[in-house]
Amino acid sequence: MPAQIPLDLPHQASHARDDIVLSGSNRLAVEAIDSWPAWRHSVLVVVGPPGSGKTHLAAAWAERAGAVPLGRGGVSALLEQADFHAVIDDIDRTDMAEDELFAIVNAARLGGGTLLATSRRQPRELPFALADLRSRLAAATVAELGAPDDELLAGVLMKLFADRQIDIDAKALRYLTERMERSLDEARLLVAAADREALASKERVTRRLLKRVLDRGEEAVRHQTVVSGPYPAATEE
After folding, report:
1. How far separated are the first and last CA of the chain, in Å rounded?
2. Engineered SS bond to 42: which of 5, 52, 71, 108, CB 3.0-4.6 Å?
3. What would be an example GO MF term here (predicted)?
């Protein structure tokens, strides 16, 4: 029987605070964003490896604080506000000019507002030319994220499958958790790919189906998800 062609229906990942799965690898960072607005310092840098959930944490805080995402050229208007709240995602790779970065970090340090930045590197390791910018960032509060542990990966996978109305049993979930790349981004891609595979083949999401998805390799999973759309549907052992 020919495989069914899945429809490219949209599936929007949630970055809400209630969708954050708590585990030992992210507990301190989650507690840091939850403690706002009672921050001891007005600049927080969330540091972690790729796929550790930095962007999700930043988005959850931004929703709660009404924070503005910053990019090149967006600082001047924000500094006109009496009490600003801002997010810089991937400050280690931002296209913002250093004088812009210094202006917003310094304004926050002086009590003008609050700033949350994410980074793959510690603030003291960021290769900025401006000494004042480096010193301000080095004085920021740092919340570290570790690579996702088994508890976090399992929780995120369960949530992602549930969002697609897919029931997955404990054995299939453990099979996937033990073999996948330890990244929350990879978890999203694999769930999308498994969903599409199940819909196309009219199978449940079992270990056998998950093995096929994993055997195709990371690049194939990413290619399928990008080319076919983000909505790749359903489980047993």
Report:
1. 23
2. 108
3. DNA replication origin binding
Q: What is the pLDDT of residue 70?
A: 94
CATH topology of domain 148-228: Helicase, Ruva Protein; domain 3 (1.10.8)
pLDDT single digits (tens) 35-48: 999 999 999 999 99
Q: Which residues of 58-77 are buried (b: 16+ CB within 10 A; e: fewer)?
A: bbbbbeebebeebeeebbee
Say which CATH topology domain 26-144 has. Rossmann fold (3.40.50)
User: Is the pLDDT confidence value at 6 over 80?
Assistant: no
Lowest mean pLDDT among 8-17, 150-159, 223-232: 223-232
Contacts of 178 (CB under 8 A, 6+ apart): none
Domain with CATH 1.10.8.60 in the chain: 148-228
Farthest CA pair distance, the chain: 67
CATH 3.40.50.300 occupies which residues in the chain?
26-144
